[in-house]
Amino acid sequence: SGRTIFESIGGTLSHETLKASDLKSRYLARLAERKAELQRLCALTGWHYGLHHTDASAQAALLWLYGALDTRPGVTA
Length: 77
Hints:
Elements: E1 4-7, E2 14-17, H1 20-45, H2 58-69
Antiparallel strand pairs: 1-2
């Protein structure tokens, strides 16, 4: 919640903030905007949009991906 310094692994980049807690809300807002834009673009182009959280099993994501890649008529993801 206070002063935080973020540094790249190589040490070539750094960012200092005095209110680290403010970063979370701004980050989540930007992430939500980007997800919404990706969903819009996918719908516009006929692509599928899927989201997987790494704390969940990969099995469901892989099954979804398999269905999304299946091009047989009548099969939907």
